[in-house]
Amino acid sequence: MPHRFRSALASAVLFGLISMCVAATAPLRVAFVYVGPISDGGWSYQHNLGRLALEKEFGARIETTYVESVPETADAERVIRQLAAKDYAVIFATSFGYMEPTLRVAKLFPRVRFEHATGYKSAANVVTYDARFYEGAYLLGVLAGRMTKTNTLGFVGSFPIPEVIRNIDAFTLGARSVNPKIHTKVVWVDTWYDPGKERQGAEALIAQGADILCQNTDSPAAVQVAEEKGLHAFGWDSDMAKYGPHAQLTANTENWGVYYIDEINKVLDGSWSGNRKVHWGIKEGAVVLTPLNPAVPADVSRMFEAKKQAIVAGSLVPFAGPIKDNSGAIKVQSGSELSMDDLLAMSWYVEGVDGTVPK
Asked: Is the pLDDT of residue 2 over 60?
């Protein structure tokens, strides 16, 4: 064998071995797309805590990045496509409006694993995931129902999509389970994150007689307004007590880290698969209620804890019948409960919510 041929062959073998070693040790690249800034104090902030938990758990085995403040427009598809083209192996798209863009990009990049938060469509390389946040919303309602003086609760809504409607309904069901006189008023602000609009919505609800506020928006504006007015409110997505130490009774928060760690473990051990819909709640540690404000009476605190444990045990199901809509029609018969598919398509208000769902 000529010397030059042997040298070339040896170089090729060495290059191949080096490439294999590099491939074996290259970190898994994971990307996140956020609808708001990570400083929003709410939804995107909490997802970013999940990303940081991933880095802490896996260290050099993974490499993460994120793009924040991506609107639910054509920009979303552009950003998701760019990340896939940059060889990110897993992409978490963390807002409802990213559903169709994620599905379109997933068809173009079948080897990339996509995960979409709060949607209802999956595919061969797409997983849909969400927290059973309505469990926490129900418990917030229990507190509100016992602590209101006006029997009028206020809810600042973002967009009239099933995710938000079921949280409004669960909140109201929880409140009316302990106080049938409760009515919930809703103001829609048509944004996930706009502190100015959220503040205006909170002030409008107070003007209508609400003395306890809840929200499905991302800034702490509602909690801040309640603090200024000497009223009560609930943190949403994240603990907002620092913005309203007297106002916040508790916060309904997500621990996305437990889910993200579980999914990346699946990728690393080769067990990840698409076409899944995952919904974790209080039992799985994905929905976390923060410690109660000392203003909550001891008997109310005990009742709150008992109901939380009943949800974990499965003996309390927030959407178990009988349930009427706010026109008086029976929607869920006694002895039945809404399925997850029903909850994912929810488009009606329960009895006790004033007004109609915007079209």
From this structure: no
- Is it the case that residue 3 has pLDDT exceeding 60? no
Average pLDDT over residues 193-216: 98
DSSP assignment string, 102-163: HHHHHHH-TTSEEEEES----BTTEEEEEE-HHHHHHHHHHHHHHH-SSSEEEEEES--SHH
pLDDT band at 359; cut points 50, 70, 90: confident
Amino acid at 63: E
Alpha helices in the chain (DSSP H): 3-25, 43-58, 74-85, 99-108, 133-147, 162-178, 195-207, 221-229, 256-269, 298-313, 340-344
Three-class SS of 282-319? CCCCCEEECCCCCCCCHHHHHHHHHHHHHHHHCCCCCC
* Complete edge-to-edge strand list for the sheet that includes strand 287-289: 183-188, 152-157, 212-215, 232-237, 248-254, 287-289
Strand 152-157 versus strand 126-131 pairing type? unpaired
> What's the CATH architecture for 28-132+256-280?
3-Layer(aba) Sandwich (3.40)
Q: Regarding the domain with residue range 133-253+288-344, which homologous superfamily does it belong to in the CATH classification?
A: Response regulator (3.40.50.2300)
Helix (H, G, I), strand (E, B) or coil at 67: strand
What is the rounded CA–CA span in Å between residue 306 and residue 325? 27
Same fold, 28-132+256-280 and 133-253+288-344: yes
| H or E element at residue 357 | none
Work out the pLDDT band at 24, boundaries 50, 70, 90.
Answer: low
**Residue appearing with tokens 């473990």:** 265
In the numeric block, which tokens belong to residue 225?
A: 């307004």
**Which pTM was predicted?**
0.89
What ranges do the domains of the chain cover? 28-132+256-280, 133-253+288-344
